[in-house]
Design a protein that fits this description.
It is built from five helices and five strands; from the N terminus they run αβαβαβαββα. It has a five-stranded parallel sheet, sandwiched between helices. α3 links the parallel β2 and β3. The mean pLDDT is about 85.
């Protein structure tokens, strides 16, 4: 194996160890493309996060089985739905009954629930923010980027919700 791959893996492991306190036991709702959701659910379980709601409108035969395999015994309460009835309305109903700490999915849901729940969205349309193509989405570097984005969403939400007296500017 090339040394740069070993170096990337080491940096990822170090980074995830530093971030673990922010990810531990966070409840997450996932929506979007089935292939992304399966690998994303597995990654989140690795981070000790809990993907409790997973929905995709894409029909298929093996999606739920693949997600259950990815989750293992880590999240027995996970609710998984696919097909025409698995939409943002269903996800919203689930979240209203039992809230989550984070939503992760495609841009179709990025604006609908961001006021109550932080959202980490993936661009799926032809429009991309400037420079988007320069950020890795696969491999160890992609995992570092994803973990950094998730942590950034949590930190932004924490800053937004903190009372003014909780801030202290130190120079």
């Amino acid at each position: 194996m090339p040394e740069f791959i070993t170096d990337e893996r080491g940096r990822l492991v170090d980074m995830l160890a530093d971030m673990h306190q922010y990810f531990y036991r966070k409840r997450v709702a996932l929506f979007g493309d089935p292939d992304q959701l399966v690998s994303l659910a597995e990654f989140l379980v690795t981070l000790d996060m809990r993907p409790v709601y997973i929905v995709t409108g894409t029909p298929g035969k093996r999606f739920e089985t693949r997600v259950r395999e990815a989750l293992g015994d880590s999240v027995p309460e996970a609710r998984i739905r696919q097909g025409p009835q698995a939409d943002m309305f269903l996800l919203h109903q689930w979240i209203k009954k039992e809230s989550v700490d984070l939503l992760i999915g495609n841009t179709y849901g990025s604006t609908s629930r961001g006021r109550r729940h932080p959202v980490c969205a993936f661009w799926i349309s032809d429009y991309r923010p400037c420079g988007h193509s320069y950020f890795p989405t696969v491999g160890y570097m992609g995992a570092m980027r994803l973990a950094e984005r998730i942590l950034g969403v949590f930190m932004d939400r924490q800053d937004r919700d903190a009372p003014e007296e909780a801030f202290e500017l130190t120079m």
